[in-house]
Design goal:
about 180 residues, alpha+beta
Length: about 180
């Protein structure tokens, strides 16, 4: 509709819903992107994820949706400093440049720790997955804070994939692999 009306859909979305517009930018994208708000203006860049360890990554759908408004209120009440934002930007770069699964897991661990500590939250891995090998990255509509639609699960090379699959299925969580048509197990 925004295209027909010749208006910027990100501005319209922000005005209507108060979100960053990240989820809208993702929906419009043809592939992976990086997204930043700079002076309240969206900066969307196409990127690549050149991991040669994609077979060790997967998504878990929990079947629950976190309200974006709750996430936005949490950040509004505990805003991030410029130094913290700079660190998150550096972690995004490190994520995209990771050469091994262990390197990627280290980046995710630091990112999740910084978020949880600042916002006073329990890390999703500890809350939902206990002793799961690898790392867990929560993905949320526009704000990567609370566990929402997808939980990004990184499975280490030594993972008991069959056991993990049974655990997820017993909780009615669906598993997806990063490559379309690729079976994670």
């Amino acid at each position: 509709m925004a295209q027909c009306a010749e208006v910027d859909p990100l501005v319209t979305f922000k005005n209507a819903h108060g979100g960053s517009g990240y989820d809208l930018a993702c929906a419009k994208a043809d592939g992976p992107i990086t997204y930043q708000l700079i002076d309240n203006k969206a900066k969307v860049l196409n990127t690549t994820i050149p991991f040669d360890f994609l077979d060790e990554l997967g998504f878990v759908y929990r079947g629950k949706k976190q309200l974006t408004s709750e996430s936005l209120n949490l950040v509004k009440n505990k805003p991030f400093s410029d130094d913290q934002i700079d660190r998150f930007n550096s972690l995004t770069d490190a994520f995209l440049q990771s050469k091994s699964l262990l390197e990627l897991e280290d980046v995710i661990e630091e990112h999740e720790s910084l978020l949880a500590e600042h916002l006073g939250l329990t890390k999703v891995k500890h809350e939902l997955f206990g002793e799961l090998p690898g790392q867990v990255k929560a993905l949320v509509d526009g704000v990567e804070i609370l566990c929402s639609l997808l939980v990004f699960v990184l499975l280490s090379n030594g993972s008991n994939k069959r056991g993990l699959q049974q655990s997820f299925l017993s909780q009615n969580w669906d598993l997806f692999a990063p490559r379309i048509g690729h079976n994670i197990w």
